[in-house]
Each structure stands twice: as structure tokens, then as C-alpha cells.
Amino acid sequence: MTGIQAVRYLPGRQLLLLALGLSICSGCAYLGSSVMPFQIDALMSGLHQSASRAGMFGFFEIMSFAVFMVVLSRLTGGVSVVMTAFLGAGLAVLSSLLTATGLSSSAWTWGCALLFGLGEALLGRSYVCAASASENPDRMYAISNGGGLIVLVAVIDAIPYATRSFGELGVFVGIAVIVAVIAPFMATLRHAPPLSVRQSTEKMRLTRGGVALLFIWVGSSLGSSMAWSFAERVGRAIHLSADYIVFLSTVGIVSSVLVSFIVGALAQRLRREIILPLTLVGTGVGGLLACCAWDSWSYTAGVIIYWNCSMLSYAWLLGSAAALDHTGRVGTFCGGMDRMGYALGAPLGGLIVDHASFTMLGIAGCVACVVSLPFGLPVLLREIRASGTEGRPASGLQVG
Questions:
Q1: Considering just the CA atoms, what is the radius of gyration of the chain in Å?
Q2: Whole-Å CA distances, 310 to 142, 146, 303, 345
Q3: How confident is residue 297, by pLDDT bands cut at 50, 70 and 90?
Q4: Residue 294, class by beta-carbon neighbours within 10 Å (0-12 exposed, 13-18 middle, 19+ buried)?
Q5: Rounded CA gap, 340 and 66, in Å?
Q6: Distance between CA atoms of 333 and 350, rounded to whole angstroms?
Q7: Each residue of 208-241: pLDDT tens digit?
């Protein structure tokens, strides 16, 4: 019996511990995307950087995460996920503390952003590889995405306290402290089933199904980023208060956490050919509704639909990558390309807003989310069925 097959006999306690480690790893890996507005504000207020200089910090942070994720997809399965997780956490802590020293040169802050992106990429690689090797990747991704959101909310809530305690650059100190405190829980990633010798050494192959998944994934990320980047601006344009907009985002996050846990528990009963296109279309429709909102009700509906569908679609995209390749390399590669699409979404959305309208922005974002589905989804599903993984855990592949 191989290590992959042995996971079926793990006690429930060990699977829960693995879910805990995955949740912490997920939250830390995608921390930069969530706290970037606070980081940029801290650089502008604390180091008196211009908006363009501070904005480049965010660009280097996200793009380095994306590029390093693509590079790390070439790592063989023999490299321990626990080791890369702790190395990534250490780099995230170190880069945050270095930024908090107060040196204001662009080379210094941008270098810290590159280092933080590398740390996130290492964490992302550990998260994807460990979850992909589990008995039911769709379930583990849904649950750990929800758990990761809890981590993100905790960090965001702690930022005001860190700022009051350590000054304008306290956001970086707060990130470093929280990551250092929760990182030890990632040791439970050791419960991820090991790969066989052959799987540990084989090279990543991007098949036709993998290419189809890549187009679907990047399109969804690009479209959601285009629409969501200006959602707050739309809310202000229809005269919603800042407090209501923030409260609505919190409701969206909390509801998506609950839905992720519920769907994760029911993952084996849900069909990929239904849940994946449904959530991708829902992401596009939610962004469209938020951008075209005419009152508080339409805006609220758009935001709630967007949050829940985007979280679930991301889990099923990762699960689809695991169904194609449970070593996690395809998921790591596609995850890096996904971040590149997300990074490009905001500037493209800005061009549309400058030259057209919020309505056109919503339409463009929705189209980007769904345009690849008609030709990409059949190819993806056909290859998953042919691999013999659909309808049973991905770990059921014959190995070794």
C-alpha cells in the first residue's frame, strides 16, 4: 500500500490536523493580496512615499508571488511541504520586519516586497501540494479556503492595534508577529500523505486539460479583479456610507466562510461539471451586479454573490488541478498564473473606467470570467474523467 493510498486509513483527528495546517498555510500565503491596501497606506503615511512609489511595492509583491509560484512548480515532490512552509513563513516575517525598520529608499522597500512575495510563494506551494495529495482535494480546499479567510480577517482586525502600538509602520510589525505566532501550527502539514518515489521525481506535464484549466482560471481571476478592484468606488457613487461598505465586505467574508465549510462537508456529493461553471458564472454575475448597482439592495446582492462564488470557484479550480495532477505541480503553476491575472485586472479595469463606465467594467469582468467555459470546460472534464479520478478521491490513482 502506497503513502497516497494509506491516507484513507488515517484517523479523523489527523485529517482535522491537516485541515488546520492547510488553513494557516492558505491564510499566510494569500496575506499580501488582502493587506496590500494597508501596506501601501503605511508606506505613504509612515515613509512619505508617493502613491506611485508605494503602489510599486504592491506590484512587486504580487508579481514576485506569481513568478516564484510558477518557478516552484518545477520542484519535485521530494521537497518537504513542511520545510517550504516554514521557510516561507520565515521570509514573510523577515521581510515585514525589514520594511518596518523605516528605510525609505525604493530599492529597499521594493526588495522587501520581492522577499515577501517569495515567502508567500513558498507557502502557496506547500498549501497546494499538501491539499492536492489528500483523499478528497475538493473538500480540503473548500474547508482550508474558509479557514484561511478566518486568518485573513484576524490579521486585518489586528492592524489598527499594531498601528497604535508601533506607529504608521506598525502594520508590518503586526503581520510579522501574527505569522510568527500561527506558523508553528503548519507543522500539522506532515499529515499530508507522501508521494511514491516515481511521483516524487517525475516532471510536471501541462496536458490539454491543464491548458484548458489555465485559461479558465486566469480568465476568472482577471475578470474578478477588474470588477472587484472598483467595487468600493461604485458603492460610494450610489451614496452608500463607508461604514456600510466595510460592513458588507465583512458579511460577505463571514458568509463565504460558512458556505465553504458546508460545501466542503458535502464535496463528495457535488458534481464538478455543475459546481465549477455555476460558481464561475456566479463570480462574473456578482461582479457585474456590484458594478451596475442602482441601489443598496442590488449592490448588496452583487457583493454577497461575488464573495461566495469566488471562494467556492477557487476551491474547485484547485481541486480540478489536483484531479489532473495530485503532486500539486499543476495547481502551483496555475496558481502563479492566476496571481498574474489578478495583478493585471486592476490596471485594465482602471482603463475601462477612465474611458467608459462602471457598467462596461462589470460587463467586461463578467465576460472574462465565463468566456473560456464553452470550449475549455469540456476539455478539462473529459481529461479528468479519462484519468479515472472523477467521482472518487484523486488519491485513488494507482501509484508505485
A1: 20
A2: 11, 12, 10, 15
A3: very high
A4: exposed
A5: 6
A6: 27
A7: 999 999 999 999 999 988 887 788 788 888 888 8
DSSP 122-189: HHHHHHHHHHHTSS-HHHHHHHHHHHHHHHHHHHHHHHHHHHHHH-TTHHHHHHHHHHHHHGGGGGGG
- Stated as kind and residue range, the H or E segment containing 59 is helix 51-72
Burial of 229 (0-12, 13-18, 19+ CB in 10 A): buried
Q: What is the H or E stretch that residue 305 is in? A: helix 296-324
Q: How many CB atoms lie within 10 A of CB 272?
A: 20
> Rounded CA gap, 113 and 92, in Å?
9
**Which of 394, 348, 396 lies closest to 368 in space, CA to CA?**
348
Q: Give the pLDDT score at 212.
A: 94
- Does residue 10 register a pLDDT over 50? no
CA contacts within 13 A on the Cβ side of 280: 28
Sign of the torsion formed by the C-alpha atoms of 127, 138, 311 and 377:
positive
Cβ atoms 286, 306 nearer than 8 A = yes
In contact, 27 and 149? CB cutoff 8 Å: yes
What cell was used for 371? Answer: 468566456
pLDDT in tens, 363-384: 999 999 999 999 999 999 999 8
Neighbours of 8 (CB within 10 A): 12
What residues have CB less than 8 Å from 119, skipping those under 6 apart? 87, 88, 89, 90, 91, 92, 93, 94, 95
Q: How big is the CA angle at 103 (ends 97 and 107), to the nearest 5 degrees? A: 100
Query: In angstroms, how far apart are the furthest CA atoms of the chain?
Result: 62
CA 371 to chain centre: 21
Rounded CA separation 28/47 (Å): 25
| Helix axes 296-324 and 373-386, enclosed angle (nearest 10) | 40
What is the residue whose three cell numbers read 473606467?
A: 353
All structural domains of the chain, each given as residue ranges with its CATH number in brackets, are 3-201 (1.20.1250.20), 208-392 (1.20.1250.20)
Evaluate the CA torsion angle 300, 302, 304, 307 in order and state its sign: negative
Quote the pTM value: 0.81
Cell numbers describing residue 307: 464573495
Cell of 64: 514576485
